[in-house]
Amino acid sequence: MNTFVRWLGYLFVIFIAAPLLVVVPMSFSTSSSLEFPPPGLSLQYYEKFFSDPAWLRPAWNSILIASATTILTMILVIPATFALVRHRFWGKGIANLMMMMPLAVPHIVMAVGYYSYFGELRLVHTHLGVILAHTCLSVPITFLVLSANLKGFDRTLEQAARSLGASPRRVFLHITLPILRPGLMISALFAFIQSFDETVVAIFISGRGAETLPRKMFDSIRQEADPVIAVVSTLLFVAVILGLLAPQIVKAVQSALGRSARNASE
Amino acid sequence: MMRRMTRLVDHQTIWPWLLLLPLAVYLLVFFAVPLIEVLKMSVTEPKPGLGNYQKVFTGALYGKVFLNTFGTATLVTVCCLIVGYPLAYLMSNTTPRRAMMILLLITMSFWTSFLVRTYAWMVLLGNNGPIIWLIEMIGIADPPGLLFTRFSSTLAMVHILAPYMIMNIYSVMKKIDPVLIRSAESMGARGGSLFRHIYLPLTAPGIANGAVLVFVICLGFYVTPVLLGSPREQMVAGLIGNQIEQFLAFGLGSAMAVVLLVITLIVLGIYHSRFGLDKLWG
């Protein structure tokens, strides 16, 4: 029983890994179809991606929209998270529920709403429209990550600074913010990824004017499914791996620098 | 009432609400209003009344699509459990290094965009893909097309949603005290009964969490069923998209969206009353 379940586990490891493994070779294909393994290797689809405005523009739009969404989300969520984590007040339960609601509503439902509402406001097919919509959808995950960080915050550090005569403003700027910085960075990263990956709402409201990368990929998969998609997938994939390994890389670089510094001082 | 009012205006309540105000106003204007817009359209477009809902609940097509969506969501949830449980078991019963590698793989899969994973399945299951090739190798000439069927979309959705299940089960399974297992074994518990009396009850919360997440996400899934599924066996989200984009039937699309939303909220509501929604997303 034990070994059987274990082997089943390994089998499912392959199931999870296999799709991730086909994407990279596909991006170097010479064929224009979904042939796998590819009949020959080339960089032609990388060239196509990096020279075709029809791909570069959506990529740039996505970066722009995700960056703006991140800033707007953080401005709105940071104070709200402080209120919800550090205070007990009337209506807290409702406020908590309000923060999580965008996660409970299926994106297709919101897409229908935005399509009509932003149509009236003339925000369909604009960057601003997508940013405003994505900010709503990014609120819950950003709040979850940030509040988890804030809950683990040791408040005696702030009290110590206060008792030593620092003003509340000073405490916030010199104690609270620096300690909270990693948490803020991670929650901002989550907001960015949420917007960068969001597909359904973008399909309905980004249009030609503010076409995002997921929307372009969706249309392209639906229509021609050429290996440029594999190129984009590979690039996104590399970004994910770099993101996951970033802490290790930073640590390795730091220890290498530390070693060379030690060597230099010896 | 009076006391509540005075509590409402005292400093302790005002300050947190001031901090919350910008976000609350924002969500009201850009989240609640569009949602209400959907509700409104469902009873006013093209003409006022409940005609759209009548269509949704009596039209053969719509009933079929809702049933299909339910069936698919249930199937995907069960498959995710079948994939997730042995994987979580393997991860909690192997060397830490190997568990770490598997965890990294699952995290990587989780962070890879839905679209990328959907495309990968298109390559794997395509007519010039490795799986068809394998089937032909076994000796089945002229195998049936796998792409754009219910099978391909279900498989891809299981792959995409399995990480939710795995993470949830793993997070409870790794906390099971090995002493508990050893003592159960020393008292003669083997295979089936060990699973029934130790593993199942202790991992039940993780299963419940994972199942609700997978089920709810699957109910409203748009991208993968539209790209990989059979056009004749649509799911609700795809049909809503069709109504809006192709037929400009905003009323009917909205009515279906409202029904989908209500079903989703009911599932989440049941979960909330039993476990508390704040635990669902970790």
Automatic annotation (TrEMBL), chain A:
* Pfam families in alphabetical order: BPD_transp_1
Membrane topology is: Multi-pass membrane protein
Write down the InterPro entries for this protein, in alphabetical order.
Answer: MetI-like (IPR000515), MetI-like_sf (IPR035906)
Parts of the chain that traverse the membrane? 7-28, 63-85, 97-117, 129-150, 171-193, 228-250
Keyword list, A-Z: Cell inner membrane, Cell membrane, Membrane, Transmembrane, Transmembrane helix, Transport
Q: What is its main location?
A: membrane
Domain ABC transmembrane type-1, first and last residues per copy = 59-246
Q: Which SUPFAM superfamilies match?
A: MetI-like (SSF161098)
User: Does the UniProt entry include the keyword Protease?
Assistant: no
| Places the protein is found | Cell inner membrane; Cell membrane
Report the superkingdom from the record: Bacteria
**Key word Protein biosynthesis present:** no
Q: Which PANTHER family match?
A: INNER MEMBRANE ABC TRANSPORTER PERMEASE PROTEIN YDCV
Protein name per UniProt:
ABC transporter permease
From TrEMBL, chain B:
Instruction: Tell me the keywords, alphabetical order.
Output: Cell membrane, Membrane, Transmembrane, Transmembrane helix, Transport
| CDD domains, per the entry | TM_PBP2
Locations listed in the record: Cell membrane
Q: Which Pfam families match?
A: BPD_transp_1 (PF00528)
Q: Where is the ABC transmembrane type-1 domain?
A: 66-271
Annotated membrane-spanning segments are 12-36, 65-90, 102-125, 145-166, 206-228, 248-271
Q: Which InterPro entries match?
A: MetI-like, MetI-like_sf
Q: Does the keyword Endoplasmic reticulum apply?
A: no
Q: Which family does it belong to?
A: Belongs to the binding-protein-dependent transport system permease family. CysTW subfamily.
Supply the name of the protein: ABC transporter permease
